Amino acid sequence: MKRTHIILLVGIAALIAGLLSIGIDVSTYDSITSAKSKQGKFVHIIAKMDKNQPLEYDAIKNPNYLTFFAVDSLGAQTKVIYHNSKPADLEKSERLVMKGKMQDGHFECSDILLKCPSKYKDDEKQMQKNVNEQVGG
């Protein structure tokens, strides 16, 4: 085999390995129902915290244990257990992007990303009011 063939084969192998490593990290968002069907597999879920259910967090007793219930856009609900400190403004968040696994009927969350309400919401309302006044007047 020529030296250029060996270099070419090594290059192709490196390219394939790189593509596979990128493909492993790419994930889609699952609903709670589909996550329940993938027990033990790492998934991403977008949901809201169910404010009608209790949130359990005691910073003195165990600062790295938080439980709450989450509801997705399809209405499915699950208990979430998060072994880390409670994120600030969790209760104010519009949506939660949670990464983790479904295990034993609950979601073992490893990471939570908060999607908070826009700080420009009031500005949008004021802008709409101004537009309505200009159109009507």
How is this structure best summarized?
With 137 residues, the protein is an alpha+beta fold.
Description of the structure:
- The chain is elongated and about 70 Å long.
- A hairpin with a 5-residue loop joins strand 4 and strand 5 (77-82).
- The protein has a five-stranded mixed beta barrel.
- Helices cover 32% and strands 35% of the residues.
- The chain is α+β, with helices and mostly antiparallel strands and 137 residues long.
Which key phrases capture this entry?
OB fold (Dihydrolipoamide Acetyltransferase, E2P), 137 residues, 32% helix, five-stranded mixed β-barrel, single chain, 3 helices, alpha+beta
Helix proportion: 25-40%
Category by helix and strand content: alpha+beta
Spatial shape: elongated
Q: What string, H for helix and E for strand, traces the elements in order?
A: HEHEEEEEEH
State the major sheet.
5 strands, mixed, barrel
Q: Look at the structure and name the CATH superfamily of the domain at 28-119.
A: Nucleic acid-binding proteins
Provide the residue-averaged pLDDT: 83
Radius of gyration: 23 Å
According to CATH, what is the topology of the domain at 28-119?
Answer: OB fold (Dihydrolipoamide Acetyltransferase, E2P)
The name of the CATH architecture of the domain at 28-119 is Beta Barrel
Task: Work out the helix count.
Answer: 3
Distance between the termini: 83 Å
- Which regions contain 5 or more consecutive residues with pLDDT less than 50? none
CATH class of the domain at 28-119: Mainly Beta
Overall strand count: 7
